[in-house]
Each structure stands twice: as C-alpha cells, then as structure tokens.
Amino acid sequence: MEHPLRIAFTSYRGNMKCGGQGIYLWFLARELAGLGHRVDVLVGPPYPDPMPFSEDVTPLENEQFWAKWFVRDWAHFLPQPDPLRVFSPLHFFELAASRVGFLPEPLAFSLRAFRTLAARLRAGQRYDVVHDVQSLGWGLLGIRALGLPVVTTVHHPLSVDRLASFVRDRTLRDAVGTVTFHPVGMQARVARRLDRVLTSSRASAERIARDFGVRPERIANVANGLDTELFRPDPQVSRSATEVLLVGRASDPTKGVRIMLQALARLPDDVTLTLVDDAHPGNPARTWAREAGCAERVTFSGRVPTDELVRLYNRAALVAVPSFYEGFGLPAAEAMACGTPVVASAAGALSEVVRAAGGGVLVPPGDPEALAKAIAGLLEQPELRARLGGSARERVVARFAWPRIARATVDVYREVLAERGRPASTTTSAQSGIRRAPASSA
Questions:
Q1: What are 53-80's pLDDT values in tens digits?
Q2: pLDDT score, position 434
Q3: Residues 216 and 205: beta-carbon distance below 8 Å
Q4: Which of 210, 206, 204 is nearest to 224 (CA)?
Q5: Which of 103, 165, 240, 296 is 20 to 30 A from 57 via CA?
C-alpha cells in the first residue's frame, strides 16, 4: 500500500477572488487532504479562506507595494505598525522594484518560502514534494537545491498576459512598462529547471513548451478541476429563453467582450446580455455597447459571490465565451456543469473543453458575425439547448470533477519521486514532535 504524501504548497496569492490560482490552491489542497495526504500551505496575500483540511497554513508577509502605488493608497503604504520595516532587505527590494514598474511579488514570495522551508528542514521537518502554484520565482530553485522535488502548476504562461497587455498599450512608454512589469524571463528559466510543470490543457502545454522552453516530457496535462457539487443544475431557477451570459473582464482583451457586444447588435432586440464584470461607469464595455447600438440590452452584474454566479449560469439561456485565448476556460466548464450550453471561440483550450463535454458550439475567434449566428441558432432551438446541457453535465463530472484531478496530480508526484529514486517519507511533524518554524516577517 502506498504511503500518504507530505505536500507543501506555495502560492504568492491565495484568495479565490484574486483569480484562478486561489481557486486551484484551495480545492486541490482540500481534495488531497481528503485522499489522506498531509498538506501544508505557504501563501501570500490576499490570503485564502479558512483551510481547515490543511495541517498548517502559513501566511507569508507581503506589503503589496505595487498595488498601493497603483491605487495611490498612501495612508497604508508603509508597513504597520512599524514603518521602519520597509528597510528590511526584501521589503526594500519590493518597494524599489514596484517604483520602477516591476511586479516583485512572485520573486519576493519565493525567497520567503525558501527561507521558511529551509528553517523547517533544519528543525527536522520533512516533505515529499513542494507544489508551487504559478509563482515561479528564483526561490524555488533554492528549495530544489535543498533536495526537495518541486513541481509547479501553470494554467498558461505569463507571456500570454504580456501579449494581452501589449494589445492594450497605446504608447511606447506603455509598451516599455509592459516589458518591465512582467517577469517572463525569470518564470521561464525557473520552469525549465523544475521537476515537472503541471497544466490544464494541450493548448496550454504547447504554449508553455514554446514560450518557456520547457521540454514536452516534463509537462503534465492533468486538466483543471471543478466543484461539480457547487456548479450544478438548479431546478428552482427559471431558465431564460433570451438571456446570454458572459463571465469576463472587459479590461482583458483576450476575453473578447467587445466581439460579444458586436455580436449582440446583430441579434434580435429581445436578446439580452448579462456581463459579469465591474459595473463602474468607466468600464470600457459601456462605450463599446453604445458604439454597437445595444447599450440598453446589456446588464452589468458587478463582481458576484459564487452562489450568485451559479444562479446566473442556471438562469441564462446560454453562455458565450468569445475569448481569443484560454488556458482552460473555466466559465465554459462551469456553465456546462450547470447544464447550460455554451457558444465559445475555437481558441486555446476552449476547443478541448467544449468537445470533451459536448455541450456547445465552437466559432472562429474574433468573428462577431459567426458568434451571432451560432447564438441565434441555439436560441431558436430550446430542445437542442436542453439536450446539450444535460449531456454536458454528465461529461464534465466524469472529466473535470476535483477528485479525479487530485488523483491525477498525485500520480505526477509519485512519478517525480520515482525518477529521483525517493520513496515517500513517513516522517511528519506530528510523529517527530517538531514545532513549526515561524512565518517570515520580511
């Protein structure tokens, strides 16, 4: 019988509201603990929701200077209650790097994680594997030099975000800022030196191999997980016959929000769009909707809690995912888990996800005419929508439910351990009586 593993997660941002990495961290850690493995978490701010299934959650400090510069939060800019801590080496580095436009969080977090894990190893703590979630800072190479196997999850390489930023840029100064901000070089070099890179689709694996230079045999496609007990059909919610739902930020050009609004203008007047995005007056989608002549048919939901998002999925006639690139396409999978069909771009991993679930229609990316035609075709066929949604639900559960993804992830851990000639250790802090090292303070 195989021994339970001792796993240390590292993630420079941990809250579910800060993006997919927080969702991935919380649910994967929960599932691994449910399988009997012992999970510790080292995490940066915004910190995760309570994780009672983890043996230890250690918050690693980060003053988030870049975000404070961006929103001009001068009142809380310096560390509290001791502002002089800004002169500690890592804090000062983060301050200086933020001032010149570099995102220092992944690097600084990885160094704090290295320091914390090194202290624990000196104290007698043992881990079988360290699993990083999209930090890819230099400190991970230090952790690996300590003798610990290190794997990382990359849903898509940072080069994709950098390209999207270039699309938004309007001046040479903007473009220089994009190059400065994204630590693509560091992440690529670190990824090439880790034991394995886990990702969520063939499209993402190919992009990681191409943009980061990781050898294909060191990339493991384990797909992405979904809480299919949370995202599920709700017979108490009345299904609209004409409402289209889009979950995506207009500020991210890869999400195709403008294409959707151009498609909406080509659809009958009774077709409406609910956009799950910030409802502030400056949202560029408001301007695009006015330009397309369909502003009165667009509702901005604002950022919604998960239970409200599930309700919106269940209420919509269909969900549109007009993205130009997705490393997985979580809104498409969530919609189909709720029994709602999708119309999605055949871009990135969306083709894989939609075809695997069989719950929708694919159209060429960036083509509002094709998008409008596909949406109109499904809206005119309620029986087809119901059939697609029902069959997709079953396939999503079979392919993407978290227990399956967690088992596949453990298989990767054991494969790495076998390559390194290391059996799973059975030493734990509970067995050895070792007290944990304190969290990093700088």
A1: 999 999 998 777 767 766 677 777 777 8
A2: 29
A3: yes
A4: 204
A5: 103
> Are the C-beta atoms of residues 442 and 121 closer than 8 Å to each other?
no
DSSP-based three-state secondary structure for 399: helix
Vertex 436: Cα angle to 435 and 442 (nearest 5): 140
Residue the block writes with tokens 């009586």: 433
Which parts of the chain have pLDDT scores under 50? 426-441
**pLDDT (0 to 100) of residue 430:** 35
Q: What is the CA radius of gyration of the chain?
A: 23
Domains of the chain: 6-225+401-432 (3.40.50.2000), 243-399 (3.40.50.2000)
Distance CA 105, CA 63 (A): 9
Residue type present at position 190 = V
What does the pLDDT look like over 140-167, one tens digit per residue? 999 999 999 999 999 877 777 777 666 6
Supply the pLDDT for residue 309: 96
Q: How far apart are CA 350 and CA 378, in angstroms?
A: 18
Spell out where 49-114 has E strands: 56-59
* The two structure tokens encoding residue 427: 């030493």
Q: Identify the CA nearest to 128 among candidates 429, 411, 425.
A: 425
- DSSP string for residues in 415-441: HHHHHTT-PPP---HHHHTPPPPPPP-
Q: Coil, strand or helix: which one is 92?
A: helix
What does the block give as tokens for 143? 């952790």
Rounded CA separation 156/250 (Å): 19
pLDDT at site 147: 95
Prediction pTM value: 0.86
**Parallel, antiparallel, or unpaired for β 298-300 and 318-321?**
unpaired
Concatenated DSSP letters for 327-341? SS-HHHHHHHHTT--
- The pLDDT of residue 37 is 97
Give the phi and the psi of residue 344 in degrees, each rounded to 5.
-130, 155
